[in-house]
Design brief:
Elements lengths: L3 E9 L3 E6 L2 E6 L2 H4 L8 E10 L4 E6 L2 H11 L6 H10 L2 H9 L3 H4 L7 H11 L18 H9 L4 H9 L8 H13 L2
Parallel strand pairs: 3-5
Antiparallel strand pairs: 1-2, 1-4, 2-3, 4-5
Helix pairs in contact: 2-3, 7-9, 8-9
Length: 191
């Protein structure tokens, strides 16, 4: 699985970029909110990648930070929300704006995305209600509790209630999955 790409910006289009790495060009779909933050052609760029395989396609999706990638991962797990719809949502709102709309149950904001109607907006709100992706304080929507952390702790034998407590106590500066797992383990060990 491809987790990240580090190379030179070879080309940009409306919805994707081409990263050149050792003479190979990788086309990566990018939300418009991320596209604005990318360097110009010829400059070096590092992208976190979500590799989505479907019967009809294999697509790389690129993000600049773990928060945005984790949100994308969570969105595509929801029934009726495919990668293209998730990308469209993340192209109309930043990760922070989208998390805020979900936390505030802002149906109008969510259904403002093409392909998202009232029923789908309601499903999104229900799916995210109480989800660890939204910060426990309800105010800091930039922090995402990555599903990878939950999976890692589950594989180590921790119960859901313990994991939830550890994620709630996660320090705001924990942005990397490995850092989050270590912080959760310290919390669970009582240190």
């Amino acid at each position: 699985m491809i987790a990240s790409l580090n190379g030179y910006m070879a080309a940009k289009s409306a919805a994707s970029v081409v990263l050149e790495i050792n003479g190979i060009g990788y086309e990566v779909a990018i939300p418009l909110t991320v596209m604005d933050k990318l360097p110009t052609i010829g400059e070096k760029v590092f992208l976190l990648i979500e590799f989505v395989v479907r019967e009809e396609s294999q697509t790389l999706y690129g993000f600049l930070d773990e928060t945005t990638r984790a949100l994308f991962r969570r969105l595509i797990k929801i029934s009726g929300i495919g990668a293209k719809t998730a990308l469209a949502m993340m192209s109309t709102m930043t990760a922070k704006e989208l998390l805020s709309a979900l936390a505030n149950e802002d149906h109008a904001r969510l259904s403002g995305t093409p392909g998202i109607g009232k029923k789908t907006a309601e499903r999104l709100i229900i799916e995210f209600r109480g989800n660890a992706l939204l910060s426990s304080s309800g105010a800091d929507f930039g922090v995402i509790r990555d599903d990878d952390v939950e999976q890692a702790l589950t594989s180590l034998g921790y119960k859901k209630a313990e994991i939830k407590r550890a994620l709630t106590a996660m320090p705001p500066d924990a942005t990397d999955t490995a850092v989050k797992v270590r912080a959760a383990l310290r919390f669970l060990a009582g240190k």
